[in-house]
Amino acid sequence: MTEKPSEPIYVTQPSMPPQEEFNEYLKKIWNTKVLTNHGPFHQQFEKELADYLGVRYLSVFVNGTMALITALQALRITGEVITTPFSFVATTHALWWNNIKPVFVDIEPDHFTLDPAKIEASITPNTTAIVPVHVYGNPCNVEAIQKIADTYGLKVIYDAAHTFGVKVNGNSVLNFGDLSILSFHATKVFNTFEGGAIVCHDEKTRRRIYFLRNFGFADEVTVIGPGINAKMNEVQSAFGLVQLKYIDEYIIKQRTITEIYRAGLAGVEGIRYITDIEGVDHTYSYFPIFINAEQYGRSRDEVYNLLKESNIFGRRYFYPLISQFPTYRSLPSAKTELLPVATKAASQVICLPIYPDLKLEYVYFIIEILKKGRK
Ligand SMILES: Cc1ncc(COP(=O)(O)O)c(C=O)c1O
Fold this sequence. Notes:
single chain, alpha/beta, 7-stranded mixed beta sheet, 3-stranded antiparallel beta sheet, 12 helices, 17 strands, about 35% helix, binds pyridoxal-5'-phosphate
């Protein structure tokens, strides 16, 4: 067995391209002194990124949260919005910042995404949209969700922060719904230090997003509405251009790690992991495991601490549920008994370390701890 790592191993570590390559871009920025305001790198990045992802209209943002807040503004969403409690807290915060009431609906037990079978019961005359999350990179049941949206005249905005590069039957997952948002936070497989994007499907919406992202300015003297400042700057955009050259390499490395985890943990009673979905090109950014305490002989938190004692810092994504945080827990839809699948998942999950530069010896080490830890 490999020795305990001398350094802490965290759930993720940002991937960085060769610094010399980035320096070339920095030199240009120093020469031109164009730092922001839709500069040349910003424009080039939007184009190259849209091509890479296989989408038509993409607008880059300062981060994913501002992209989501702006996406809701772009479609003038108000009233109530149906969403999942099993996500990063920013998903619901973006609703709150828009004065929208979140209505939590439970997830399905196979891939932990919003359960379409439970959505209709939560629709009221005030419902205007659905904000599902492709959690851990697993696409939601996009067809069933669209059918409900079409029946009730609702918009669909996907939080696709976890699905950079994911495809369904060869088509980008970002092409579903009315809008999708991405995050390029340091913890994501594709990072621009911080960053994000909105993907839309027509030029009119793209223009509205463009204006909203820059204080509402349509031209020097025309402000179309209360926009915000959420533009990506030239340094972030340049970094994104360099990262694009390496992203495929990052994804391949993450797939290798996923395969090792899956093979190593297969058959360990009490540990469940998610497998590939047929027809989906995954990008393997997360490796959540779910501990069944009765079968494994230890609770999730005991396993979490066991790993920690060996310098392995998994994360309990997503625990607590968003619906349990003080801002949201008094909402009628936040009641635990209405969210049994999400509540169980939150009590069982640990996301294991996964990132391109994670040494494979540590992956084997983590598997050993988990195998030996069963009582
Ligand atoms: C599901 C989800 N939504 C939204 C965000 C917010 O993105 P950002 O950190 O880029 O603002 C994140 C992660 O950070 C996320 O995981």
